[in-house]
Amino acid sequence: MQYLLLIYGPESESEDFSPETMKAYDAFWAHVTERGALKAGEALHPVSTATTVRVRDGQTVTTDGPFAETKEILGGFYVVDVANLDEALEYAAMIPGAKTGSIEVRPIVDFDAPGADASATGSAASV
Is the pLDDT of residue 97 over 80? Predict the structure, then answer.
Protein backbone atom coordinates (compact mmCIF):
# COMPACT_ATOMS: atom_id res chain seq x y z
CA MET A 1 0.00 0.00 0.00
CA GLN A 2 1.22 3.49 -0.72
CA TYR A 3 1.41 6.23 1.91
CA LEU A 4 2.14 9.94 1.61
CA LEU A 5 4.53 11.23 4.27
CA LEU A 6 4.01 15.01 4.54
CA ILE A 7 6.79 16.95 6.24
CA TYR A 8 5.58 19.92 8.33
CA GLY A 9 7.75 22.32 10.29
CA PRO A 10 8.34 25.97 11.06
CA GLU A 11 8.99 27.86 7.83
CA SER A 12 12.30 29.20 9.12
CA GLU A 13 13.51 25.59 9.33
CA SER A 14 12.17 24.66 5.88
CA GLU A 15 15.18 26.44 4.43
CA ASP A 16 17.67 24.59 6.64
CA PHE A 17 19.95 23.08 4.03
CA SER A 18 22.94 22.77 6.36
CA PRO A 19 25.38 19.96 5.57
CA GLU A 20 24.20 18.04 8.66
CA THR A 21 20.54 18.30 7.69
CA MET A 22 21.20 17.34 4.09
CA LYS A 23 23.29 14.36 5.22
CA ALA A 24 20.38 13.17 7.40
CA TYR A 25 17.91 13.50 4.51
CA ASP A 26 20.34 11.73 2.15
CA ALA A 27 20.62 8.86 4.66
CA PHE A 28 16.83 8.56 4.87
CA TRP A 29 16.56 8.63 1.05
CA ALA A 30 19.17 5.86 0.78
CA HIS A 31 17.43 3.78 3.45
CA VAL A 32 13.99 3.77 1.83
CA THR A 33 15.45 3.43 -1.67
CA GLU A 34 17.53 0.37 -0.70
CA ARG A 35 14.36 -1.28 0.63
CA GLY A 36 12.41 -0.51 -2.53
CA ALA A 37 9.85 1.54 -0.64
CA LEU A 38 10.52 5.01 -2.10
CA LYS A 39 8.23 6.00 -4.96
CA ALA A 40 8.70 9.79 -4.90
CA GLY A 41 9.96 12.60 -2.75
CA GLU A 42 10.50 16.31 -3.18
CA ALA A 43 11.20 19.45 -1.21
CA LEU A 44 8.89 22.40 -1.75
CA HIS A 45 9.69 26.07 -2.23
CA PRO A 46 8.70 28.42 0.64
CA VAL A 47 5.03 29.28 1.18
CA SER A 48 5.70 32.76 -0.16
CA THR A 49 5.75 31.13 -3.62
CA ALA A 50 2.40 29.36 -3.15
CA THR A 51 -0.87 30.29 -4.81
CA THR A 52 -4.19 28.91 -3.59
CA VAL A 53 -7.03 28.31 -6.07
CA ARG A 54 -10.71 28.26 -5.11
CA VAL A 55 -13.78 28.11 -7.34
CA ARG A 56 -16.83 29.81 -5.89
CA ASP A 57 -20.09 30.26 -7.79
CA GLY A 58 -18.32 29.29 -11.01
CA GLN A 59 -15.59 31.91 -10.57
CA THR A 60 -11.94 31.03 -10.09
CA VAL A 61 -10.29 33.03 -7.32
CA THR A 62 -6.56 32.89 -6.65
CA THR A 63 -4.86 34.00 -3.45
CA ASP A 64 -1.15 34.40 -2.81
CA GLY A 65 0.18 32.10 -0.14
CA PRO A 66 -0.96 28.92 1.55
CA PHE A 67 -4.56 27.86 1.99
CA ALA A 68 -4.64 28.51 5.75
CA GLU A 69 -2.84 30.50 8.40
CA THR A 70 -0.54 28.19 10.30
CA LYS A 71 2.72 28.20 12.22
CA GLU A 72 3.89 25.03 10.48
CA ILE A 73 4.18 24.75 6.73
CA LEU A 74 4.32 21.82 4.33
CA GLY A 75 8.00 21.63 3.40
CA GLY A 76 8.11 18.44 1.36
CA PHE A 77 6.86 14.90 1.01
CA TYR A 78 7.71 11.29 0.30
CA VAL A 79 5.55 8.59 -1.24
CA VAL A 80 6.41 5.12 0.02
CA ASP A 81 5.04 1.72 -0.95
CA VAL A 82 5.01 -0.48 2.15
CA ALA A 83 3.21 -3.48 3.60
CA ASN A 84 1.14 -1.62 6.19
CA LEU A 85 0.63 1.50 8.29
CA ASP A 86 3.12 0.35 10.92
CA GLU A 87 5.91 0.28 8.34
CA ALA A 88 4.88 3.72 7.03
CA LEU A 89 5.00 5.07 10.59
CA GLU A 90 8.49 3.62 11.09
CA TYR A 91 9.71 5.46 7.99
CA ALA A 92 7.96 8.67 9.06
CA ALA A 93 9.83 8.58 12.37
CA MET A 94 13.14 8.36 10.46
CA ILE A 95 12.55 11.61 8.52
CA PRO A 96 14.80 14.31 10.00
CA GLY A 97 11.94 16.84 9.99
CA ALA A 98 10.12 14.76 12.61
CA LYS A 99 12.62 16.07 15.18
CA THR A 100 11.55 19.71 14.83
CA GLY A 101 8.12 19.46 13.16
CA SER A 102 5.69 16.68 12.36
CA ILE A 103 5.11 14.07 9.68
CA GLU A 104 1.55 13.43 8.54
CA VAL A 105 1.05 9.89 7.25
CA ARG A 106 -1.87 9.37 4.87
CA PRO A 107 -2.83 6.34 2.81
CA ILE A 108 -3.13 6.91 -0.92
CA VAL A 109 -6.32 5.66 -2.57
CA ASP A 110 -5.68 3.13 -5.33
CA PHE A 111 -8.70 3.49 -7.59
CA ASP A 112 -7.48 0.56 -9.71
CA ALA A 113 -7.35 -1.93 -6.84
CA PRO A 114 -9.99 -4.67 -6.90
CA GLY A 115 -12.87 -3.67 -4.64
CA ALA A 116 -11.42 -0.19 -4.09
CA ASP A 117 -13.76 2.01 -2.09
CA ALA A 118 -12.69 5.62 -1.73
CA SER A 119 -15.85 6.65 0.10
CA ALA A 120 -14.17 6.39 3.50
CA THR A 121 -11.32 8.67 2.44
CA GLY A 122 -13.12 10.88 -0.05
CA SER A 123 -12.73 10.76 -3.78
CA ALA A 124 -10.84 12.93 -6.21
CA ALA A 125 -14.15 13.98 -7.73
CA SER A 126 -15.23 15.64 -4.47
CA VAL A 127 -12.09 17.73 -4.11
Answer: yes
